[in-house]
Amino acid sequence: LCKSYLQEARWYYNGYTPTLEEYMNNAWISVAVPMVLVHVFPLATNPVTKEAFESLSKYPDIIRWSAIIFRFADDLGTSSKELRRGDVPKSIQYYMNEKGASEEEAREHIRLPIKEIWKLLINTAQRENSLFSETFIGCAVNIVRTGQIIYQHGDGHGIQNFEIKNRISKLFFEPILTLIP
C-alpha cells in the first residue's frame, strides 16, 4: 500500500502522466481494498488453510476484482472534486488525456469494465471449489457494494454533509422492505 502511494507521489511530483493501464496497475492497490481483505481473511475464515493463506500474497482474483471495482467507483464519485482539492488525477483524467475524450466519454468508458468485472466477481463467488470461505467471499463482495454506496452520488467519503450522513444512517436504522412471494 505504501509503495503504491509513493508511486502516485512520484508521478505527481515528476510531472509524469501515466497511461490508464499504468494507473490501474497501481491504483487497485492504493484504494486499500486488498489490505482490508487480507486483514479480514483470518477473521472470516475457519479453518485457515495453508493454500488459501499463501495465495493471499499473490492477490487472487476475488481480491483484485473487488479492488478494481472499488477504485473505479471511487474515481467516478470523487475525481473532479479531488482535483480541485489538489489531489492526483484519477482514471477519468488519465483516460481523457490518453484518448482525447470528454469527461462524460471517460466516465462512460470507466462504467463499462465495472459491469464486466462484477460478472467475474459474482462467477468467482459462486464457484464451489474456491479456496476461500463463503464468509470471506461475502466480505469481498460486500466491500464493493459499500464502495458503490459511498460513491454513487459523489464523494461520500471526503465530503461529509447531511445527505451523505442521512443515507448512511438509513442503511443501519431503516429496514429495507422486500416482497417475498
TrEMBL record:
Question: What Gene Ontology molecular function terms does this protein carry?
Answer: magnesium ion binding; terpene synthase activity
Tell me where the signal peptide lies: none
Quote the Gene3D superfamilies the UniProt record gives.
Farnesyl Diphosphate Synthase (1.10.600.10)
Which UniProt keywords are present, listed alphabetically?
Metal-binding
Instruction: Please verify whether the record's keywords include Metal-binding.
Output: yes
Q: Which residues form the Terpene synthase metal-binding domain?
A: 1-119
Name its GO BP terms in alphabetical order: terpenoid biosynthetic process
**Which InterPro entries does this one have?**
Isoprenoid_synthase_dom_sf, Terpene_synthase-like, Terpene_synthase_metal-bd
- A Pfam family annotated for this chain is Terpene_synth_C
PANTHER family found in the cross-reference section = (R)-LINALOOL SYNTHASE TPS5, CHLOROPLASTIC, OS04G0344100 PROTEIN-RELATED
Record protein name field: (-)-camphene/tricyclene synthase, chloroplastic-like
Biological classification of the source: Eukaryota, Viridiplantae, Streptophyta, Embryophyta, Tracheophyta
